Amino acid sequence: MKAMGATQEEYYRGVRMVPYDLVKELALALAGVGILAIVVAAVLSSPDVAPVTIATWAQSDPVDFVTTATGELAGSTTSAGYGNPYNTNGPGQAWGPIAPQKWFGTQIPIDSPGLFVIQPLQRAAVGNTDLSGAIDTWQKASSDQQAKWTDAYTKALADATVKDGKVSVADGDYGPLPTMMSNLLGIAQTGGLDGLLQVNGKFYQTDYTPSLLFIGDGSYLSGQAEQWNLLGNQWGMMNETGRYPGQTWLWLYTAWYQVPPFNSSTGFLGLSSSNADLGIVILMTLLTVALAAVPFIPGLRDVPRWVPIHRLIWRRYYARG
Amino acid sequence: MGTTTSVEGAAEAAPKPGSWTLRLRESIDRHLPMDHLLPDRQPYYVGSWVYVFGVVTIAALVWVVVSGIVLSFMGPQWWHDSSLGRFFNSLHFWSVQLFFIFMVLHLWGQYFMAGWRSGRAATWAIGVVIFGISILTAFTGYLSQQNFDSQFIAVNAKDAMNGAGVGAFFNVLNFGQMYGLHIMLLPIGVTILVVLHIVMVRARGVVKPIDPEGTKRGARP
Known about the structure:
The structure holds two protein chains of two kinds.
Chain A lengths: L3 H9 L4 E3 L2 H23 L9 H7 L1 H13 L25 H4 L8 H13 L4 H12 L2 H15 L3 E3 L2 E3 L8 H13 L2 H8 L9 H9 L2 H8 L23 H6 L19 H17 L10 H4 L2 H5 L1 H5 L2
Antiparallel strand pairs in A: 2-3
Helix pairs in contact in A: 3-4, 3-9, 4-6, 4-8, 4-9, 6-9, 7-9
Chain B lengths: L19 H12 L2 H4 L3 E3 L8 H23 L3 H4 L1 H30 L8 H23 L4 H16 L11 H30 L17
Helix pairs in contact in B: 3-5, 5-6, 6-8
């Protein structure tokens, strides 16, 4: 094998060489790009919309908060029925025999009723006999009875009213739920639930998985996101808040969610909106490998020869004949 | 030692033929002499603005790293409460935007120049890997902002990660993991690969215009 250094000399043999100052070019590029970045940063700043806390959610939309918490008890929220890696309550995404969500199992166990409702209430029930009694009643009830209470309460919440931050529903048989939910709402509105979910017996904490799953189960977060055009059908996460460019480099990834079969409920060849995430990750992986392998793919590697853009780039070279 | 003379200081020890150090030094001298690494001459056909996209991408990366070092030194909360911090965050943000604009222009430029020809396919492939890791680095950056964008991106992106089976190992809801990856492992990966990419470009030299040696070889590697 020839040495690469010798190869370059051989490669350039007969080619006219002209003076070049690589270090000067790099210094000028650093200065030019630096000035541009500094000016744009100073003039346009960067986006920083405050995050949603559980407290702001419970204060701004208490009915959505209580509906979500009731849904956690009923097992009807996204996280409660998600499947792996949080629990086994949902099948997860699969494409034929390809089911990586199932293969890797439950790695981050999330018990939505216990983690988001029962455990925070138990911690807050110290010295509160009404609340501790309500929790006791709930836990001793049969699952059928619990389902009847959550079903009736969820239906009643559709016509709930809010006064002074408190949620009221029509009279009915909801068991201990009104007591439990009014306490949970009160804890949340003071910011206590942010701490209970996040700290959860620890002191230092950097993992926001429980809090984000709970907030994501409600409709308040997505309602806020819709205002900023961040929803999936609005090209989702390649956008960002404010009039900023966002992650434009994700355009192709995001684009697949907007077209069939990935936005279709019926789908094609087993791919549909129900397993769009898996299908698009597989597709983008294949496309990335193909991009890296372009030099070896006939047709793709020949396009530059067929399209005369290179004649513009090297126009002085070709002008010499 | 057997290779030294008996007269102290009269002669230097001859290097062992199997010396790893000597072989490494000779290999570097052979493959990447300094006049290739820091050339003061270049082929006359290198005369288009397209060639600038590569160096300005590197320049933008330098500004990304410099502003990122300031932000990471001061901690993830700083820029939310300090006007100076906000400026450095903005500098980081726009340097990243410029980095991607220049990198994509560089990628398209190299595609239409078929820059992988004459033994440069690995240089192209590493460039694509840099592009992919850069996207992952920027993505973890968006997740590390500790604002509404981070929250909503995390809540939505988890489904893609979980669907692909990697959600528990690359947990976008775990700020500590995303922040660590963003300020440490991924930038180191990008920087090492960029250095390797540049070394490969300098070792091989700049590819000739398409078809200067006839059309038989075409745009093959």
